[in-house]
């Protein structure tokens, strides 16, 4: 019994250490990638920042690209977790506004990470992951649009295409923060929800002649 | 007098030939870039397709990148020209629906070119031009949103941010055709205009509980 316990404790210690070292390497990569850019970052600099030996690095990651993939997966995982938490904690709130607000807030908090993922030379490497994340988001919205359709509120418009267009606007909006920190995510969310809630083009919107006049 | 005329005719002939050769090089580059990819395309293949000597190539373009820039500029120029023509020919139509329909139709017709511009390794090279084209589009929409605001139809929402979000959705929608040819541009335009015209989220949109039920 005593031996069993100490083995369990030892395994626990090893596992905890592995988890901690992995987290330190990811944090160091995040810092080096976002400050120096992915292309110019070196594993040698990352292990220095993480204070980890090169052999330990290779226990966790195959190469620099593997590290980038792990970072991106973590960023998407955090987004998903925040959306799931919001849905679980506010079961009586309307789904679409809840996801729009939560997603933009979460993306804003991780904006340096998403800038790294979505721009520059990493964009190509992470293209498939971006597509997958967008698909996941679309799947969240589809049931809400289908419900609206069943209630006759979408005429004959396709709920799936509407969900895709909404996700497109959200993904594009996340890029607003790549160049500057504003506008605040709440402001962007409220503008999108205003558009989604009542439209933004008045029935008799301005014609070209009026514009030139 | 006779001499003057023949000089003028000669200059006209030289100019016409230069314009024709330039157009042939651009068409050849378009073909080679979109079939083989920008990175793998060679000037040697492009001049073979255009049936032009290498020395002639360098009268027109500095290098492969210069040719890519010229192609992208032409694609954006065609978009702008089609939007300006639509505005000029339909002075009594509402501006926003007119631009949305024209832009999506024009982008669809040039979808292989925009796929080349917006994806893969050329994406980085053309980033500044893409930004500039988006800014130009935003400027087209701002007066329409400002007019709606003056009529009290936008509450306190920012017409500039709404214009940016609309352009974001349009730019993203253009990417729908990079992987497959559908949905048709008219269908995408009508979905966006439905969203802009009356909103797509019903006032009492489905809650999370209803979704799980």
Automatic annotation (TrEMBL), chains A, B:
**Domain of life, source organism:** Bacteria
* InterPro entries to which the protein is assigned, alphabetical: DNA-bd_HTH_TetR-type_CS (IPR023772), Homeodomain-like_sf (IPR009057), HTH-type_Tx_Regulator (IPR050624), HTH_TetR (IPR001647), KstR2_TetR_C (IPR041490), Tet_transcr_reg_TetR-rel_C_sf (IPR036271)
Check the record and name the PROSITE patterns matching this protein.
HTH_TETR_1, HTH_TETR_2
Task: Write the record's keywords in alphabetical order, separated by commas.
Answer: DNA-binding
Listed GO MF terms? DNA binding
**Per the database record, which ranges form the HTH tetR-type domain?**
19-79
Annotated DNA-binding residue span(s): 42-61
Question: Does the keyword section mention DNA-binding?
Answer: yes
- Cite the Pfam families for this sequence: TetR_C_24 (PF17932), TetR_N (PF00440)
Could you identify this protein by its name? TetR family transcriptional regulator
The organism named in the record is: Reticulibacter mediterranei
